[in-house]
Write a structure and sequence with these properties.
Layout: H1 2-19, H2 24-40, H3 47-59, H4 63-80, H5 83-99, H6 103-118, H7 121-124, H8 132-145, H9 149-166, H10 169-185, H11 192-206, H12 209-225, H13 229-246, H14 249-265, H15 269-286, H16 292-303, H17 310-327, H18 330-346, H19 350-362, H20 371-383
Helix pairs in contact: 1-2, 1-3, 3-4, 3-5, 4-5, 5-6, 5-8, 6-8, 8-9, 8-10, 9-10, 10-11, 10-12, 11-12, 12-13, 12-14, 13-14, 14-15, 14-16, 15-16, 16-17, 16-18, 17-18, 18-19, 18-20, 19-20
């Protein structure tokens, strides 16, 4: 059984690399692996196999299955108390929790993984079994969502520096992707196009179709931000088609929120709402909840573009706030609160608008140079 598991976990990544997550044989391999894992029991020998299984489940957007596997990994790691296993298990569980929208728990596990790896970086960084760079990359998401944009940027910079020090193309592509995403979340658009073009070049040179699709989607966003919206949308859709055909459902759900945002900015309301609905369907059916607050916020903004859409828009904003509070997603809570406050202020409810934004803004301890917090300060000054 163990020999068969090891062989299946060698074959699985090869199929992903050449055919994507939609490879028909991959479903059979995953199903067979789960049978063998259950039969083998909680033995230290299956840790590496379980980690490979989790990696495929996670990247293909199987959130519930991935969570169960990550929890199994941590159980095994805590039993053997071996640093490599503990680092990998905490990284896996933290990553899964991030995309499930449980950002506080995610941060705990990801910072635990980083601390383990940092205890002996010369040992862990070169090892293909250590998630040194992925743990930092996933931590950027959790930190930004929780309201720590400066810490998120610091972790993204660390990940990219370590990847370049390692000089492995795949690790560099991984870190570049999260560097782009962190800059976009902080609304620091300068340099994103150059990074996206670098990611595409690296991916094509080394045969990484997944990263090429991610880079193309990111490039489209950058082009749209620069003002050429039609070319930007065309490039985004090309990248998203690549993600979809590759079976990268997890990142595709996030990309839908980016697409909806561009449609909203050019007032292509129906297309924007269609993208939002597609994203929210994945939120509910697959628990891909990373972009849940943003999707409801964008629904609100899009509905405001309709002559009779205000009531539905207010409902969408309130749903976004409700989700943000549940997820402790302070950065998204602020963004949605500002959008809702502007509507309230326009209707004459200036005091209500101010009282909505002010306590959220007061909870931030960093990031005051970012556009979001500058906008919040300006809005509060206007409402006084």
């Amino acid at each position: 059984d163990l020999i068969e598991l090891r062989l299946l976990m060698l074959l699985g990544p090869m199929l992903v690399a050449t055919q994507g997550f939609n490879a028909p044989e991959l479903i059979t391999i995953l199903a067979r692996s789960q049978v063998l894992v259950r039969r083998a029991g909680e033995r230290p020998e299956i840790f590496g196999v379980l980690f490979g299984l989790w990696s495929v489940q996670f990247a293909s957007g199987q959130m519930r299955e991935g969570l169960a596997t990550a929890e199994h990994l941590l159980t095994l790691a805590e039993r053997v108390q071996q640093p490599m296993a503990l680092g990998g298990a905490n990284s896996a569980l933290g990553s899964n929790l991030t995309w499930l929208g449980d950002f506080e728990r995610a941060r705990v596990h990801l910072e635990r993984a980083c601390a383990i790896y940092d205890s002996d970086l010369p040992l862990f960084l070169p090892s293909s079994k250590a998630s040194v760079i992925p743990s930092r990359c996933q931590l950027t998401w959790a930190l930004w969502m929780l309201g720590f944009p400066d810490q998120a940027k610091k972790r993204a910079e660390e990940a990219l520096a370590l990847a370049r020090r390692l000089s492995r193309p795949f690790s560099t592509a991984f870190a570049l992707t999260y560097s782009i995403a962190t800059a976009a979340r902080r609304r620091e658009t300068v340099g994103i196009r150059q990074s996206a073009e670098g990611l595409i070049e690296l991916a094509r040179e080394h045969g990484f179709p997944y990263w090429s699709a991610v880079g193309t989607m990111s490039l489209g966003c950058a082009i749209a931000d620069e003002g050429d919206v039609e070319l930007g949308l065309e490039t985004m859709l090309e990248g998203m088609h690549g993600l979809e055909s590759f079976g990268a459902d997890l990142i595709y759900c996030y990309a839908l929120s980016l697409l909806a945002d561009v449609y909203m900015r050019v007032r292509r309301t129906d297309e924007g709402l269609k993208a939002v609905d597609a994203g929210l369907e994945r939120v509910e059916s697959k628990d891909q909840r990373l972009a849940e607050t943003e999707l409801y916020r964008l629904r609100g903004l899009l509905l405001l573009q309709r002559p009779t859409g205000k009531e539905a828009a207010l409902e969408a904003f309130r749903r976004s706030l409700e989700v943000a509070k549940r997820q402790h997603a302070l950065s998204m809570e602020l963004r949605t609160a500002m959008d809702l406050a502007r509507v309230l202020a326009a209707d004459g409810a200036r005091e209500e608008a101010r009282s909505l934004v002010e306590p959220i803004y007061a909870r931030f301890t960093e990031g005051f140079s970012t556009p979001d917090l500058k906008d919040a300060a300006a809005l509060l000054a206007e409402l006084r």
